[in-house]
Amino acid sequence: MMVFELKETVTHEQVGWSVGHFCTTRLRISRKMLVSIKHHGDILRNGQHVNVNESVDLDDEIHVSFPEEHPAEDMIATQGELDILFEDEWLLIVNKPPGMASIPSRLHPERSLANFVLGYYKQRQIPYAIHIVNRLDRDTSGLVIFAKHALAHHQLSKMQQNGLLDRRYVALIEGELGPQTIDLPIGQTDHSFMERMVREDGQRAVTHILKSTAVEAFMRTISQLEIKLETGRTHQIRVHLAALGHPLVGDTMYRGTPLIPRQALHSASAQFPHPGTGEMVMFEAPLPSDLFIEQ
Fold first, then answer.
1. Nearest-CA neighbor of 97 among 267, 280, 230?
2. Which of 9, 31, 125, 243 is deepest in the core (most CB within 10 A)?
3. Helices (H), 139-235
4. Which long-range contacts link 93-96 to residues 24+ away (Cβ below 8 Å)?
5. How far apart are CA 81 and CA 158, in angstroms?
6. pLDDT value at position 2?
C-alpha cells in the first residue's frame, strides 16, 4: 500500500544536526510521530537506512516513509457525491451541506461527511485514516478541512493552537448588532447534554464580529454578520449571539425565530499556512441559496 513520504536535502545551517533533530525541526515531525516512524516506517539518508542519532552532512538527502494508516475498523465507507473545493496530497477541503453531521454517531453511523470522505478515499484507493480538522454542527453549512494524513493533522492542530488558522463565518440574526469582540465563557447547561450556555465556570470563548450589514428581509430587519473565531467551543457562535439577545435566525435551540428550517450559519472561509509548503492559502465556500439575502 502507498504511504506518505517526505524528502529534503540538508543545507549549510543544518550540517551536524542529528537525523532526529532534522526530522523534528526541518520536517516538523512530532517526537511521538518520529517514534512511530522508527518502528513502523523508515528513514533513509542518501538511500541507506539511518539511525535518528546519526548526524547529517551537507547535501545529504533525508527520505522519510511514514507508517501506513488505517481508518477505524467500525467506520462505514458511504458512497456519494462530495462538493470538493480543493485537494492535494496534504489536504481535502469540502463544502458540507446543511442537515449532514460532520462525524458519525451511534444512532447515525453511516451518512456523515466523514463517512462520505472515507467512501471517496476507498473509491480512489487513498490509503489514509479520517483526520477532520474543523467540525460543523449538523445544520451549519460550509467549509470543512480534512488533513490527508497524521503529519498534516499534527501541523494543522498546532496552527489552531497558535491562532494561525483563520476561520470566517457568515451568520444571519434578527435586529442590528455592530462589530465587536465577545469574550464570554461557555459551558454545558445543567439540563441538556447538547445545549450550551454562557456561565462563569465555563471555558474561555472569544468571538469577533468583524462586519455587520443590516437589510430588510422576512418583513423585518436582518443583519448579516462576518465572524471570526478565536476559540472553538461547541456551539460558540450560536451561544454568544443568543447571550447578546440576537440568536441566529432559525436556531430554535437558542430561541431564534424559525424563519428558515435551520440555524443561519455558514463556514465561509479558512486561511492558513499550507502544511507542506508553508505558503499562505485561502479557501472559500460559496454562500448557499437559503442564506442569501439581497442587500
1. 267
2. 243
3. 150-161
4. 93/143, 93/144, 93/145, 93/146, 93/270, 93/283, 94/143, 94/144, 94/146, 95/141, 95/142, 95/143, 95/144, 95/285, 95/286, 96/136, 96/140, 96/141, 96/142, 96/143, 96/144, 96/267
5. 31
6. 60
Distance (Å, rounded) from C-alpha 201 to C-alpha 188? Answer: 10
Answer yes or no: 137 catalytic: yes
Catalytic site residue from 137, 183, 251, 290: 137
Is pLDDT at 41 greater than 90 in this prediction?
Answer: yes
Question: CB neighbours of 9 closer than 8 A, spacing ≥ 6?
Answer: 59, 60, 61, 62
Percentage of residues of the chain with pLDDT beyond 70? 99
pLDDT digits (tens, 9 = 90+) for 71-119: 999 999 999 999 999 999 999 999 999 999 999 998 889 999 999 999 9
In 3-149, DSSP assigns E strands to 5-9, 42-45, 48-49, 61-65, 84-87, 91-96, 131-132, 141-147
- Tell me 72's DSSP state: -
| Cell numbers given for 165 | 488558522
Paired residues of 143 in beta bridges: 95
Beta strands in the chain (DSSP E): 5-9, 42-45, 48-49, 61-65, 84-87, 91-96, 131-132, 141-147, 166-174, 180-183, 186-188, 196-198, 206-217, 220-229, 265-273, 280-284
Closest listed residue to residue 1, CA positions, set 117, 89, 126: 126
**Long-range contacts: 84-87, Cβ < 8 Å, 24+?**
85/143, 85/283, 85/284, 85/285, 86/283
pTM for the complete prediction?
0.93
